[in-house]
Amino acid sequence: MTELDHYLAHHYLDETQLAAAAAMTMEEIDALIQARLVPAPAYVVDASGNLCSFVFGVMAAPGSRAGRYFPPSQLAWIAVALHALAEGPETAPARLQAQFASRYGAALATLNLTTWRLRDSFDDRGAPIAEGLRARTDSAWTYFLNGTFSLCVANPMSEAHIAWKEVLQEKLAQQSGNGSKTLFSQAQALFSQAQAQQMHALIDAYAAAAMPFSPIEYALSSRKRLVEDLRANLRVSDAQETPA
User: Does the pLDDT of residue 42 top 90, yes or no?
Assistant: First the structure.
């Protein structure tokens, strides 16, 4: 098995495993995907040995086992989709989107007050700004269905966990210059020691909310930039400030 095979086997279900766990055929699950009721796979490994994802496109993965790969939590959303279909197939996609948007928006409202100001979506009193909040929820629903969150969020079928990871990433990217800042740059302080400690805590929270990413794509991932590289920058900065 390749490194990619080990990663996928540890974190995902292949088609056979997903269908068996759901007590469905893969054809039935594919029909739910085509109807925009459940997310597409996080990854596809094609017969030519390429890893394909919505986020990173096509990347060479020679020797890896062909197949489609889904997060285990997909099973919970399949159950949600089947329940929605039972209540009315014609309106099921719209009702699922509305449910997702409501829960995602509620999570954002809390995070706006507790974690990071989302100025495009909430005013200074915390009241929703309809256009901005709708843009966020519509975008999140699109990413949810195309498998993006199944690739990058530790719990990708939970609206609250998706919102937590997305807001942490937004905050971390903004406060760190997208991972480029260090504590000191040419003797000019960019972070105080207190700010650096807060940054370490923010990095830890983001790392827990995000997926590890596969070895094929890791070098291009937000985790590499906002966790590994940023931690290294802060360690270098800490060492520079420590007296000899």
Answer: yes
